[in-house]
Design goal:
292 residues, mainly alpha, two-stranded antiparallel sheet, 10 helices, membrane, MCP_dom_sf, Solute carrier family 25 member 44 isoform X3, transmembrane
């Protein structure tokens, strides 16, 4: 175990695996419920053209709440919960990779950097297909077509149940793009989340260490952790948000026509539209983005 200014780093061999996975899933679900409305708002801000519908995070929140109610803020949530699987794969890969890298380097920064990037690679391979479906569901609005696909409605005008909508979206993706449609934006996701994860963990430990210098010795470790997490997330968001905008637009493929453009063209076409609004929203999502 490493000890830097009383900051204890718990490694894989110190974990109670049963508690780790049970409590990990429970806590992650609680976090998802809390931040999912911001995830939905971020997605809509990134995809919309300029300020055609929403003028910022608060404006989007109010308009969605008025149009669709509370359920509108959780559109696509049930599908998104399947990414909990990738979250557990993420933390397992992260811890095992740290243990492996420790045989070659004792630097906590090196271990965090390599483990974070590796964990993101594994997680995104599972997450991207779920994200593609979830994001299309997020773009559904009552009486309006924001996304590339539109779910069916019942003759009475009521929306179908969530899993009926999901089935519609899956069929339309398969019909339009085949299986590769579920991996739309996979490369952009890797270019977004591998750096995000690789940056988040070193900054998390860095901020925790710096806070330990500034705070009294009797200050609880949990205070360092509670403050370091948001600081690391905000730092990673600022650095990686441009690629996150590209990833969302490639996966939803509505306003940015990027299928035949090289990566540089995608950057020029997409990044300047919506990244500033979305970065403010994304900064509230306080877990490594790659673990979603």
């Amino acid at each position: 175990m490493e000890d830097k200014r009383n900051i204890q780093i718990i490694e894989w061999e110190h974990l109670d695996k049963k508690k780790f996975y049970v409590f990990g899933v429970a806590m992650t679900m609680m976090i998802r419920v809390s931040v999912y409305p911001f995830t939905l708002i971020r997605t809509r801000l990134q995809v919309q053209k300029g300020k055609s519908l929403y003028h910022g995070t608060f404006d989007a929140f109010v308009k969605i709440l008025r149009a669709d109610g509370v359920t509108g803020l959780y559109r696509g949530f049930l599908v998104n919960t399947f990414t909990l699987i990738s979250g557990q794969c993420y933390v397992t890969t992260y811890e095992l990779t740290r243990k492996f890298v420790a045989d070659y380097s004792q630097s906590n920064t090196v271990k965090s950097l390599v483990a974070g990037g590796s964990a993101s690679l594994v997680a995104q391979s599972i997450t991207v297909p779920i994200d593609v479906v979830s994001q299309h569901l997020m773009m559904q609005r009552k009486g309006e077509r924001m996304g590339r696909f539109q779910v069916r409605a019942s003759p009475q005008g009521r929306g179908v149940v969530a899993f009926g909508q999901t089935k519609d979206i899956i069929k339309q993706i398969l019909r339009a793009d085949g299986l590769r449609g579920f991996y739309r934006g996979y490369v952009a996701s890797l270019l977004t989340y591998i750096p995000n994860s690789a940056v988040w963990w070193p900054f998390y430990h860095f901020y925790a260490e710096q806070l330990s210098y500034l705070c009294p010795k009797e200050c609880p470790h949990i205070v360092f952790q509670a403050v370091s997490g948001p600081l690391a997330a905000a730092t990673a968001s600022v650095l990686t948000n441009p690629m996150d905008v590209i990833r969302t637009r490639v996966q939803e493929k509505q306003h940015c026509r990027v299928r035949r453009r090289p990566v540089a063209g995608r950057v020029l076409a997409c990044v300047h539209r919506g990244r500033h609004h979305a970065s403010r929203t994304r900064a509230v999502l306080k877990e490594p983005a790659a673990a979603r």
